[in-house]
Amino acid sequence: MGFTSKVLVNVGVAALAIASFVGCGSGAAKPFAGTSATAASATTTTTTANAGTATANSSSTTASTSSNPAPAPPAAAAAPAAPAAPAASGNGAPAGSTVIGGIQNQQGWQTCGGCGNQGGTGQGPDYGMGQGLSNPSLSGHAADFWANGGPAYTGGYYFIEQPTLPNPLTYLRYEFDMYIPAQYANAPQAIEFECQQTVNGDTYNFAWQADYATNGWRVFNYTTKNWEATGIPLQQFAPDTWHHIVAIYHTAGTQAIHDSLIVDGQVFNANISHPATHTGTGLEFTNGFQLDLNSASTPYHVYVDNMQVTVAD
Predict the structure, then answer these.
(1) pTM of this prediction exceeds 0.90
(2) Among 53, 82, 122, 256, which has the highest number of CB atoms less than 10 A from its own CB?
């Protein structure tokens, strides 16, 4: 069966960046504090459960489309199964945590033109998102994030609002399964993912970047607006297979702490702390995903499934 997408969110090359957004490309700030250029109203489902218990949300998103179609996904055989995720009883989440599951298939995903660029300004790539894919998929409802060229080194940024929490997070786990087809194996400049919380006017940013340029994992310093090396090596993702990614964080006072990164079951302890940035903005909690183009602006697809966050405040 070929890859098929049911619902499309598409931002053309000429889409305008929103002035209140500051981009999340290499060395830039994250665009969670503003409004989106193309936004659909969010619908989420949350479940209060013991650690690791996810609930799928099968709603889909609709948004404006550009005249530029998505690059045709490659035909491929059914994808192999993902590596096993950590057992629910052993993932460290506090009992009674809130789990938001099936995020890749939620309504309300937003894009913001060039906000993913260095400095959050300028022309963005031609990028978009398809939902409801049955192949490649683990759940039968995967998402296709794609970038179809544009200015070199620009970033296609996607984010979605989640239910807010009144206190800084004492536990945050962001995880998903990711699949890169073989023909795009060497195309990414970087792949980024993050959560962000604003509470009491302070913004806590929790971001990782798989940097293909340096073969290293980096974290974002929201205060200095720079990506920082962690010393954790990146083994570029093997194509045509599912990879399970888990990032665990928490806050302590006004510090945002990257606790660990787990890639296909291999744990990398980080224990990296950054101060929250006082932005004065309202209560907010979001998660995001980004594709960065290389020097040749090579188009590519990344498929994501079983995206969820587990939180406690």
Answers:
(1) no
(2) 256
